[in-house]
From TrEMBL:
Pathway: Cofactor biosynthesis; adenosylcobalamin biosynthesis; adenosylcobalamin from cob(II)yrinate a,c-diamide: step 2/7
Catalyzed reactions: 2 cob(II)yrinate a,c diamide + reduced [electron-transfer flavoprotein] + 2 ATP = 2 adenosylcob(III)yrinate a,c-diamide + 2 triphosphate + oxidized [electron-transfer flavoprotein] + 3 H(+); 2 cob(II)alamin + reduced [electron-transfer flavoprotein] + 2 ATP = 2 adenosylcob(III)alamin + 2 triphosphate + oxidized [electron-transfer flavoprotein] + 3 H(+)
Location relative to the cell: Cytoplasm
Organism field: Eiseniibacteriota bacterium
Cellular component annotations (GO), alphabetically ordered: cytoplasm
UniProt keyword Transcription regulation, yes or no: no
GO terms for MF: ATP binding; corrinoid adenosyltransferase activity
Documented EC number(s): 2.5.1.17
Protein known as: Corrinoid adenosyltransferase
Keywords, sorted A to Z: ATP-binding, Cobalamin biosynthesis, Cytoplasm, Nucleotide-binding, Transferase
InterPro entries named among the record's database cross-references: CblAdoTrfase-like, CblAdoTrfase-like_sf, PduO-typ
Domain (Cobalamin adenosyltransferase-like): residue spans on this chain: 3-167
Family: Belongs to the Cob(I)alamin adenosyltransferase family.
Main location: cytoplasm
Length: 183
């Protein structure tokens, strides 16, 4: 099977359902941002030489394919054929947040993104996750979606932030707190 089909050469793409839409459609923007997030998490895993977060990130990457599939599905009859994000998936993220956060000092100020290359990439993934969340919320404003998709992305962004802080702490890197005013 060839990787190229030429069907998108006109700027359209197919969804899981009838018809084609513009590659700039809100639905495509939403699942495209989720796909971009997944690619960033692949980079995070490549940087995680100690495999500190590999088990969790492996699960998350698979779940993001589920999120993307649901976002790409326009026909209700197809929704029953795909694995969808559930309350348990959100609970998993919350459990991981709580476990990692227990090892961190209390957050009293904003922290500047950075630290180790691994933590910096986790911060970048967090910002992409927030964009994906915004795209899903924007799509939901014009087409009904399962609200749990936005909840999952919201919680995932929180987890990525905590993971970045945790990786810096584990590596012995002190976080740089943001201070307003002159440096």
């Amino acid at each position: 099977m060839k990787i190229y089909t030429r069907t998108g050469d006109d700027g359209s793409t197919g969804l899981l359902g009838p018809g084609r839409v513009s590659k700039t459609a809100p639905r495509v923007e939403a699942y495209g941002s989720v796909d971009e997030l997944n690619a960033h998490l692949g980079a995070v895993r490549a940087l995680d030489a100690e495999r500190w977060l590999d088990a969790e990130l492996s699960v998350i990457q698979a779940k993001l394919f589920n999120v993307g599939a649901e976002l790409a599905t326009t026909a209700p009859e197809y929704l029953g054929r795909i694995q969808r994000i559930g309350d348990g998936d959100v609970a998993d993220l919350e459990r991981w947040i709580d476990r990692l956060d227990a090892d961190l000092p209390e957050l009293r100020n904003f922290v500047l993104p950075g630290g180790t290359p691994l933590a910096a990439e986790l911060h970048r993934a967090r910002t992409v996750c927030r964009r994906a969340e915004r795209r899903v919320i924007a799509l939901h404003a014009v087409e009904p979606l399962e609200p749990r998709l936005a909840v999952y992305l919201n919680r995932l962004a929180d987890l990525l932030f905590v993971m970045a802080r945790w990786c810096n702490r584990r590596a012995g890197i002190v976080e740089t707190e943001w201070r307003s005013g002159p440096a």
